């Protein structure tokens, strides 16, 4: 049995994750955490009595193997640091960790003899999109990224869009796209800039999580697109990560590294 704590269990991803853990025969949900759960009990959330409900990070005292984090960019670092200190292996889907924070967490993980996994996207279609985009960028160095999400998303651009830009940047020379004297008459209209590559964020009702990478070259174009129509699309990856993190000996970034 792998004992699991779900942080952010009241959120969209947290709710799906709780169900996935409960429906996986070799996982046990030993704890859940969200600030709005302060003072509440397992019965308030239709959870079994054996699941401890926490509303404060510092009060989490259950013994667990894995900490799954789907919280918010501002809190993920402190959460994961606390979990590692308690001896848990983090599986992190929350966006927003900086490179310095990842380095810190990796040092902590190795000092404790643990492993961990951070994945900007647990969906197979997104993992493949990033892989194909990196391959295409060797031949089509001019690209723009458009990510489209539900209107409740708190961060922009998405973690997946940043990771896609990073992967494309590994195979192309940094260069600015568009005219040299380009002037925005409406600020922001050219999107965010990642080493000269533009990233555009769309937030619309009806959307869940989607990304398109547009490549252009003289006389031709290539578009790569992925769609997560339902958050269920992330759960196969999260389940796999919980199993595989038990064998990792460092903080690995990217689901592709355990597939
Ligand atoms: N890697 C991947 O594949 C995916 C990653 N994500 C990422 O996961 C994260 C969560 O997304 P989503 O579920 O849609 O977000 P929601 O806004 O639906 O949920 C956020 C959760 O975080 C909790 N929370 C709020 N404040 C704190 C705090 N101080 N400490 C700990 N937890 C807190 C909320 O609890 P409360 O009830 O108390 O407010 C809630 O449970 C985002 O960063 C998103 O980008 C999303 C989808 C897929
Ligand atoms: O907030 C979301 O919904 C998602 N967040 C992740 C991201 O920022 O890339 C993954 C996916 O896009 C869904």
UniProtKB/TrEMBL annotation:
Record keywords, A-Z: Amino-acid biosynthesis, Cytoplasm, Diaminopimelate biosynthesis, Lysine biosynthesis, NAD, NADP, Oxidoreductase
Q: List its EC numbers.
A: 1.17.1.8
Q: In which pathway does it act?
A: Amino-acid biosynthesis; L-lysine biosynthesis via DAP pathway; (S)-tetrahydrodipicolinate from L-aspartate: step 4/4
Task: List cellular component terms (GO).
Answer: cytosol
Tell me which residues make up the Dihydrodipicolinate reductase N-terminal domain: 2-122
InterPro entries, alphabetized:
DapB_C, DapB_N, DapB_N_CS, DHDPR_bac, NAD(P)-bd_dom_sf
One GO biological process term is: lysine biosynthetic process via diaminopimelate
UniProt xrefs under Pfam families: DapB_C, DapB_N
Q: Which residues belong to any copy of the Dihydrodipicolinate reductase C-terminal domain?
A: 126-259
Q: Which family does it belong to?
A: Belongs to the DapB family.
Cited HAMAP family: DapB
Q: Which PANTHER family match?
A: 4-HYDROXY-TETRAHYDRODIPICOLINATE REDUCTASE 1, CHLOROPLASTIC-RELATED, DIHYDRODIPICOLINATE REDUCTASE
NCBIfam families from the xrefs?
Answer: dapB (TIGR00036)
Relate the assembly described in the record. Homotetramer.
Describe the task this protein carries out. Catalyzes the conversion of 4-hydroxy-tetrahydrodipicolinate (HTPA) to tetrahydrodipicolinate.
Official protein name in the record: 4-hydroxy-tetrahydrodipicolinate reductase
Task: Please name the source species.
Answer: Holzapfeliella floricola DSM 23037 = JCM 16512
> Which gene holds the coding sequence for this protein?
dapB
